[in-house]
Design goal:
The complex is a heterodimer of chains A (429) and B (97). By secondary structure, chain A is mainly α. Chain A has one domain: Up-down Bundle (Cytochrome C Oxidase, Chain A), CATH 1.20.210.10. Chain B is an alpha+beta fold. Chain B has a single domain, classed as TusA-like domain (Translation Initiation Factor IF3, 2-Layer Sandwich). Chain B has four helices and four strands, in the order αβαβαββα. A four-stranded mixed sheet of chain B has the order 1-2-4-3, sandwiched between helices. The longest helix of chain B has 13 residues. The chains are: A mainly alpha (429), B alpha+beta (97). Chains A and B meet through helix 1, helix 8 and helix 12 of A and helix 3 and strand 3 of B. The structure holds protoporphyrin IX containing FE. The site of protoporphyrin IX containing FE has 28 residues of chain A, from helix 4, helix 6, helix 7 and helix 8.
């Protein structure tokens, strides 16, 4: 019967601490990135690839985006894919610690121009990502075959490994090591953003949008075609760039962008057909994410076809993609997943045997909707200001400050939910 | 429910969670189970297979049988462990179609 099989898969679900530590730490590192942008001011926009701006970018991409995505994967691979991540507790502890510390060291090195700290930070981050890629890919291999989400996760992890190698080469080139000349930094950004972040958000959306937002499922073609096009576009772009064929590279990048646009439109269409019309912070966060993704692709297009357009368009594309698209999708996920993991944990603790009667608090009591909405409004304002700073760099300072407040508040709301769960457990003990 | 099965119908408690967002289906099921009387089983209508529920059921001393369709994408029949009458009725309903 099914019970035995399902029980097995769930026995592998990690203990609460494995994913939770990532999810609770990450927002505070995002807040740090907001503060860094505020401190840099207009230079964040106009000198985007100077050391301090790259440091701010990595506080966010490593400390927040990658941090949450790693924590979520440790939960998803067993529960959605039925896989086992080897040594999950150790992997979680090591990767979490390295991902929390490395952006700070990397950031200090780049911001202060201290090569030793930069190198140490990059090495720590590289170690975190290498461990995670290895463990994650081993976990993917134990998953049941044929699931689209598992395939997307596998692609995202391969993209992460490649992008890591490109990032290290870019870092070595910056440190004036004699690495072969190539646009390593460009490859790094492309594979990180479109591959690691893009493929992963897509694959996770196929599961969580229908489940949590009560929409119809994504049709199989709406999953497989964009994923295949994203991969083909990224490979084609890289090969053509390396071979020096600019038009082919542009066309291939366009294919990858179209794949993401198709994903955004499919998601918005499904959300418009959802069954239940209750207001919900996660739904709104994901809508914002899809609209920001479309806007990011539009700004990216302008930056690509009008080389004289200035750095503002690339900045707007980058912030809309990272804060607007990835950040909003992650925020929406966190508002569902953190209270749910806490609730499940309480249930297991308080009702371990038949007849236990201790009351488990309702999910909405752990994290009230009104508080989530308040934070989400602030987040949306931060995204808008960050993007507009592309046109008016003077906005960078207020944008960074609003972002810092919004993301601190996100961390505080999640921490409050965890504390409420702990109090409920203590009261029942 | 066909008219030929009054006994089974009398023992069945239905719980339709198809229109509810997670984790409400889980919460509703766990809330309904303690109220099952002798010989009664819960017949859940669900959009998805509730893998997490199975895990929690076991811990709380319930057993289940699940099938895909025909009344809902997933139907789950749940009874209290040791309640032979409920088990027989639930399994008959689960396998009987
Ligand atoms: C060990 C980890 C990493 C290393 C060593 C690294 C290294 C670098 C380097 C050297 C640059 C400058 C590129 C250039 O010179 O053109 C850069 C830029 C960038 N990286 Fe990374 N990176 C890492 C992780 C990540 C991750 C995880 C992400 C995203 C999820 C990411 C996204 C970016 C972006 C978006 C830029 C452009 C920055 C800007 O516009 O200011 N990186 N990275």
């Amino acid at each position: 019967m099914l019970a035995g099989m399902a029980g097995l898969a769930l026995d592998r679900a990690p203990p609460l601490g494995v994913p939770l530590r990532f999810l609770l730490t990450a927002p505070f590192l995002a807040a740090g990135a907001g503060l860094a942008v505020a401190a840099l001011g207009p230079a964040a926009v106009t000198a985007r690839l100077a050391g301090p701006a790259v440091a701010a970018a990595h506080l966010y991409t490593l400390g927040f985006v990658t941090m949450v995505m790693c924590g979520a994967l440790l939960q998803l691979l067993p529960v959605v894919g039925g896989g086992t991540v080897p040594a999950q507790r150790t992997v979680a502890a090591v990767v979490h610690a390295l991902l929390a510390v490395s952006p700070l060291v990397l950031g200090a090195g780049l911001a202060l121009g201290t090569p030793a700290a930069t190198a140490a930070g990059a090495a720590l981050a590289a170690a975190a990502l290498a461990v995670f890629c290895a463990a994650g890919l081993a976990g993917v291999r134990t998953c049941a075959r044929g699931q689209d989400t598992v395939r997307a996760i596998g692609l995202a992890l391969v993209a992460l490994a490649l992008a890591l190698a490109f990032g290290l080469l870019a870092a070595l080139a910056r440190a004036r090591w004699a690495v072969p000349a190539a646009p390593w930094g460009t490859f790094h950004q492309g594979w990180m953003l479109l591959g690691w972040v893009g493929a992963l958000v897509m694959g996770v959306a196929w599961q969580v949008v229908p489940m949590f937002q009560m929409t119809p499922p994504y049709p199989p073609a709406a999953r497989r075609v964009p994923l295949a096009a994203l991969l083909a576009g990224l490979v084609g772009w890289s090969v053509a760039r390396a071979a020096g064929s600019a038009p082919v590279a542009a066309a291939a990048l366009g294919v990858a962008a179209l794949a993401l646009a198709a994903f955004a439109l499919a998601t918005l269409a499904l959300q418009a057909r959802r069954r239940r019309r209750l207001r919900d912070a996660t739904l709104d966060a994901w809508r914002l994410a899809m609209l920001a993704l479309l806007a990011a692709l539009g700004c990216g297009l302008v930056a690509a076809v009008r080389p004289g357009a200035g750095p503002g368009w690339a900045w707007a594309a980058g912030t809309l993609y990272l804060a607007g698209f990835a950040g909003s999708a992650i925020t929406g996920m966190l508002y569902k997943i953190v209270p749910f993991l806490l609730w499940l944990h309480m249930h297991r603790r308080l009702h371990p045997r038949p007849g236990a009667t201790a009351r488990v608090p309702h999910l909405r009591e752990l994290l009230p909707e009104a508080r989530a909405r308040r934070q989400l409004r602030l987040h949306a304002l931060a995204v808008a200001l960050l993007a507009l700073a592309g046109a008016w760099p003077a906005l960078a300072r207020p944008a960074g400050l609003v972002a810092a407040v919004a993301w601190t508040l996100l961390g505080v709301e999640l921490a409050r939910a965890a504390l409420a769960a702990r109090r409920a457990l203590a009261a029942a003990a | 429910m066909s008219p030929g099965e009054p006994e089974v119908a009398a023992r069945e408690r239905r719980l339709d969670v198809r229109e509810l967002e997670p984790p409400e289906p889980l919460e509703r099921a766990l809330a309904a189970l303690p109220g099952l009387g002798p010989g009664e089983y819960l017949h859940m209508l669900h959009r998805r297979e509730p893998l997490l529920l199975y895990d929690l059921l076991e811990a709380q001393g319930f057993r289940h049988c699940a099938r895909e369709g025909p009344e809902a994408p997933w139907e789950i029949f749940i009874w209290r462990e040791g309640d032979e009458a409920a088990r027989a009725a639930a399994e008959a309903a689960c396998h009987g179609g």
